[in-house]
Request: fold
Amino acid sequence: MADTVFEDWTRRLRAADPSALDELMAAWHQPLLRYAAQLTGDRDAAYDVMQETFIKLWRLRATLDPSRSLKALIYRIVYTLALNQNRMKKRESAAMAALANESPASNRSVSEDLDARQLNEAMTSWIAEMPPRRQEAFRLSRFEGLSHDEIAQVMDLSPETVTKHIVLALQSLRDRLRQYQLGGS
Amino acid sequence: MNDKHTHGFEPADDALPSDVKTWLQAHAEDPGGELEQVWHMARGAHEPTPAPDEARFAALRATVLAEAQQQPRTTAPDRAPRPASLARMRRVGITTAVVTLSLLSFALWLWPVTLVAPAGERLAATLPDGSRVDLNSGSHLTYRRTFGWRSRDVVLDGEGFFDVIHDDTPFTVATFNGTVTVLGTRFNVRAWPDEEHPETVVVLQTGSVLFAAQQRPDAAVKLAPGHMSRLVGSDVPTIPEPIDVEQRINWRDGGITFIDQPIGAVLDELERRFATEVVASPASLREVRISLLLNDVRDAEQVLSTISRIRGYRYQPTADGFLMTAPD
Reply:
C-alpha cells in the first residue's frame, strides 16, 4: 500500500502549500508531542520543539525528497532539536528519580496475575534504564511505529545497527522480566 | 518501509519487525519465541502521553502558519533533491559548523515575536513602529523581528484594537481567514477561529482600511470610519454597514457588546475574559441569539445574570465556573 498521505504532503510542501503543513500538524501533533515530551521530559519544551520542527520542515520544503520517508524526516528533526536543546539531561534525571521511587521488585504481585498497569510501569522503568541510543531505537520502533529504515534515518545509524539495538533491548527486557517474576513468587 | 500510516496516528503495528525476526532466526536466538512475547508485552510500556493543550496547539499552529505564509509562496525550485548523505556532510565538518552557526543565529533572528493576553487579562503593547495595540483576553499577536523593515505584518488570533502610526509601509493584520490592510488608522479586529461560527469582524474608528479574504485578495472591501464588515468562511467580506464604534470596542474598558449573536460566543468571551468555564445545558442553548451591551463588567456572574434575566434561564456556580440551564 502506498503511503499516499505522506506522499501528498511531500508534494504539496514542495509546492509551498501551507495547507499541507496545517493538515500535517493537525494529524501528527499528538504523536509528536508524546515523542518530544519523552525526549525533553517536559511538556512545555515539547511544544517548543514541535513548533520549531514544523517551521524547520517548512524551510526545508524545497529539498524534500519524494522518494524518502517524510515521517522519518519529521522524527529526525524532532529528535535533533530535542537533543540540541540539551534537555536530554532533564529526562535522564527524571528517569533516575522515577527509578529511585520504584518499589523493589520483590514487593510486586505474583507473576500469574501481574497487574497490566504494574507491568507497564515496570517495563517503562526498565526501558528508561537502557543506554540512551538503545532506548531511542526501541521507542521509535515499538511506540512510534517507525520502520528500521526510518529509524536509521532518524538516528543516523545503519538499519543493521537498529536491528541490533532492538534485539539487545528485547533481551534486556526479557532478563529483567525473568528477575521480576522470580522476585514476585 | 512501514507504510501502514495512511492518515494521522495509528497505534504501532503490533507485529515484531521483520528485520528482528530474520535476525533472531539467523542467529538461532529465541527459539521459544520469548523475545517476541516480550515485544508484545511492551506494548503499553511507553511513558504517559502528556495531556494535549488545545490553546497551546492553537498558538503553535498560528505561529507556524504565520511563518509559512510570510515566506514567499513561490514554488520550490524544481531541482532534483539531493539525497543528503550524512557521511558527506560530516566530511565538510568545519564549514558545516560555521554555516550551521550562522543559520542558527539567522533562524533566531527570524523567530517571530508573539504577544499574548492570557485568559483573564488584557494586554496593551507598543509595536516596533510605535503603533499601539490592545489585546483582549485570550488573544495572540505574532510578528517577525523584521517588522517595520519594508513591511508591517502581524497575525492576530483573537481580538485586538489597533492604533496604527501613519507610514508609507502598509500595515496588515492577518486572521485565520482574512487580511486587513491599512496605512494609518484606528480599528478593531475580532477573529476567534475556534468559535462555533468563526468569523473575522473589522470595525473602523478613523482612517481607512482594506479588508479581504486571504484566498481572495482581489475582492477587498474598503471601510469608512464608523463602519463594520465581517468575513465568514473564505470568500468576500460583507458590504460595510454603519455601527456604533464605541460600543464595539468597549471591551477595552472592560465592557461587553454582542449584537444579535449566539449565546455561545458570549460564553466563550466570558471564559477568556474571566479565565473561567461556563457550560450550557442543553448545549443548543449556545445557539440562541442575544444582544447585550454592558459597560464595565465586573465578573462573569454579572453577565450570566443578565442573560438569564433576558431569556428566563438559570445559572449556578460549579467547581470550575458556572452552569447555565434552560427550564424544561
